Amino acid sequence: MKKRTTVYEDKAAKEAKRRKFEEEYRAKHTVQCPYCKKDVLDTMTKCPGCGKELKPAGYRPLSDKQIFRIRLIAFIVCMVIAVAVVYFVVFR
Ligand SMILES: [Zn+2]
Q1: In angstroms, what is the span from residue 20 Cα to ligand 1's centroid?
Q2: How many angstroms is it from 36 CA to the middle of ligand 1?
Q3: In angstroms, what is the span from residue 17 Cα to ligand 1's centroid?
Q4: Residues 14-58: pLDDT tens digits?
Q5: Phi-psi region of 42 (alpha: psi -120 to 50; beta: other; left: phi over 0)
C-alpha cells in the first residue's frame, strides 16, 4: 500500500528539493571576484563586495546561427498572423 503523505510533508519535500537545487546552482556558479576574492555568482554583472564590474561567465552572445533561427521563427509567426488576418478580412 502506498504511503500517504500529508500536505505538510509534500511542502517540506518540495522545499528540500528547491534548497538542494539552489545549493547545487550556487556551487556550480560561484566564482571568486578577481578584485576582492569574495565569492560571487558568475551571473552577476557587479560584485556585491567591491562594486566592480564583473564579466558574467554564463553570458554568451548569440551566434549567427541562433540569430538566424530566431529571425526565421519570428518571420514565420508574423506570416502566419498576417495570413490569418487576411483570411478573416477577405473571406469573412
Ligand atoms: Zn569584488
Answers
A1: 26
A2: 4
A3: 30
A4: 999 999 999 998 888 888 898 999 999 888 889 999 999 987 765
A5: alpha
CA of 73 to the centre of ligand 1 (A): 40
The residue type found at 17 is: K
Do 29 and 70 fall into the same domain? Answer: no
Question: Considering its fold, how many domains does the chain have in total?
Answer: 2
The domain of 44 spans 1-59
Q: How far apart are the CA of 58 and the centre of ligand 1, in A?
A: 18
Q: Cα–Cα–Cα angle for 14, 18, 19, nearest 5°?
A: 115
pLDDT bucket at 1, cuts 50 / 70 / 90: low
13 vs 72: CA distance, rounded Å: 42
33 and 51 assigned to the same domain = yes
Segment 73-91 shows an average pLDDT of 95
- Whole-model pTM: value is 0.40
pLDDT for 60 beyond 80: no
